[in-house]
Design a protein that fits this description.
With 420 residues, the protein is of the alpha/beta class. The chain has 17 helices and 8 strands.
C-alpha cells in the first residue's frame, strides 16, 4: 500500500495540559525516549513559547542531535500567529517540526475572538505564520484547524488550501469537543483529503467515547483518498476532559480489527507493540493515574477469565476468547516485588546507599557505572537528589539510568529559571 498511517503522540502536549495532571520535565523526556523505542513517528513534545519548557525542549533536541533520541521527530505546538513563530525560534532555535493552531469554527471565531477576527483574518494570520516558520527553518509544519468538526466544509477547505499554498505539510483536523462520530468522520475526512490533496492529521477527543473509533475511520478515509494519515494519540488516553484517543487502542484497532486487519494494517508505520505494556505502566506512574482494570490491552483484566465457559474455552485454545496475545504487548513476565530490606536513593540519600543501588543494577541488569573518584560520585548523587525533588516521587530505574548516563543534559532538563 503506497500511503502510510503514522502515529503522532501528543501526551507531552495535550496530555500534560489535562486539569489536575502534569509531568516533570525529566518524565516528559523519558516518555519521548520510550515513544522513540516503540517506533512512534513523532512526539509533540511541548510548547516552545512557554519559558519553563525552554531548557527541556533544547535538551531533548540536543539528545536527538547526538543520536540518542532518533529517529523520532520532536515537534512543538504554537498558535498560528507570527509572534509565536518569532518567539519559538528565539528560544528554541534548533526546532525543525511545528504545529500551528488557530480556531476555524463560527462558534469559536465569534465566541473566542469576540469580533476581533474575521474568517479572512484567520486565514491571513495563519498563512503569514506558516510562511515565517518556513523562512525561519521549519522543515515540516502541520496546520491545526481547531474545532474543525464544527467548521463548515466550505470554509474548512478554503482554510486548508490556503495553508497548503503557504507551505504547510499537513492539516490537523481537530475534533476539539469530541463531537464527531465515525460515519461523519469518514465522509468529511475523505472529502477534505480529496479536495485539498494533502495528508491529514486526525486529532480526536473522547467526550462521547469515540476518539479511537473516529481516528480509525479518519485514517481509512485518508488512505482511500490517496493521502497519508497521521493519528494523534496519548498514552493511556490521557487528555483534557474525557481524554484523547488512546494510543494502544488505536494501534490494536489498526492491526487487529476485522475491517482494518486485512487491508490497512500494513499501512501502519513502524510500531513495536512489545513496548506497549512498559510505556503504559510508566505513564501511569508518572501521571499518578492507575490503569483501569478494563483498559484495552494493558488493564489487569484485559486477559483475565472467570466465567466457566470462558475459562474452559481459553484454556483449550486462547483464540476462543482472546483476539490477540498478551505476549505481543510485552506482557507475561513475572513482576517481582521486594519484601525484605530495600535501599532507595532519594532527595536525602547518601553516597553509600546510592552506590549500593547502582551495584545492584549492575548485578541484575548489567547497567554498570564506575566513578573515577568520590567527587564524581557525589556530583552525580546531587543530581539524583535534585531529580527526586523535580519529579516529587521516587525515581524509576529508567530515570535513574538517564541521570547517571546523561548528567549534563539531565541538569539542563531540570533547570527552570523564573523570569523577572
Amino acid at each position: 500500500m503506497a500511503n502510510k498511517i503514522y502515529i503522532i503522540d501528543v501526551t507531552n502536549r495535550d496530555g500534560v495540559q489535562t486539569s489536575r495532571l502534569g509531568l516533570a520535565k525529566l518524565e516528559k523526556t523519558i516518555i519521548n525516549m520510550k515513544l522513540n523505542s516503540m517506533g512512534v513517528f513523532q512526539s509533540e513534545f511541548g510548547f516552545p513559547v512557554t519559558k519553563h519548557e525552554t531548557n527541556y525542549l533544547n535538551a531533548n533536541l540536543e539528545l536527538a542531535e547526538k543520536g540518542f533520541l532518533k529517529p523520532i521527530r520532536l515537534a512543538g505546538w504554537i498558535r498560528a500567529i507570527k509572534e509565536d513563530v518569532e518567539t519559538t525560534f528565539d528560544l528554541v532555535p534548533k526546532i525543525k517540526h511545528l504545529n500551528l493552531s488557530i480556531s476555524t469554527s463560527d462558534q469559536m471565531i465569534h465566541g473566542k475572538f469576540q469580533g476581533k477576527k474575521t474568517k479572512d483574518d484567520v486565514i491571513k494570520g495563519m498563512a503569514d505564520a506558516v510562511k515565517l516558520a518556513k523562512e525561519k527553518g521549519a522543515e515540516t509544519i502541520g496546520v491545526n484547524a481547531e474545532d474543525a468538526s464544527r467548521t463548515a466544509d466550505e470554509f474548512l477547505h478554503k482554510f486548508s488550501l490556503a495553508a497548503k499554498e503557504a507551505g504547510a505539510d499537513r492539516i490537523r483536523y481537530c475534533d476539539t469537543l469530541g463531537y464527531d462520530d465515525p460515519f461523519v468522520t469518514y465522509k468529511r475526512i475523505k472529502l477534505l483529503a480529496e479536495t485539498v490533496k494533502i495528508p491529514i492529521e486526525l486529532h480526536y477527543h473522547n467526550d462521547l467515547g469515540l476518539a479511537a473509533a473516529n481516528s480509525i475511520a479518519g485514517a481509512k478515509a485518508c488512505i482511500d483518498a490517496g493521502q497519508d494519515a497521521y493519528i494523534n494519540t496519548t498514552i493511556n488516553g490521557v487528555g483534557e476532559r474525557a481524554g484523547n484517543a488512546d494510543m494502544l487502542s488505536v494501534i490494536l484497532a489498526l492491526k487487529k480489527s476485522s475491517g482494518m486487519e486485512k487491508k490497512y494494517a500494513d499501512a501502519l508505520h513502524g510500531i513495536d507493540l512489545k513496548k506497549s505494556y512498559n510505556i503504559a505502566k510508566y505513564a501511569s506512574y508518572a501521571f499518578k493515574i492507575p490503569i483501569p482494570v478494563n483498559q484495552v490491552g494493558v488493564g489487569a483484566n484485559a486477559f483475565a477469565h472467570e466465567s466457566g465457559i470462558h475459562a474452559d474455552g481459553a484454556l483449550k485454545d486462547r483464540r476462543n476468547y482472546e483476539l490477540y496475545d498478551f505476549e505481543e504487548l510485552g506482557r507475561g513476565e513475572v513482576e517481582l516485588v521486594e519484601t525484605g530490606r530495600t535501599i532507595t536513593t532519594g532527595e536525602y540519600g547518601g553516597v553509600k546507599g546510592f552506590k549500593h543501588v547502582l551495584d545492584k543494577m549492575c548485578k541484575e541488569q548489567k547497567f554498570c557505572v564506575e566513578f573515577k573518584d568520590d567527587e564524581e560520585a557525589n556530583r552525580i548523587l546531587e543530581l539524583v537528589r535534585f531529580a527526586n525533588v523535580h519529579t516529587q516521587k521516587p525515581l524509576t530505574e529508567e530515570e535513574l539510568k538517564f541521570v547517571v548516563t546523561y548528567p549534563g543534559i539531565a541538569r539542563k532538563i531540570m533547570t527552570v529559571t523564573p523570569g523577572s
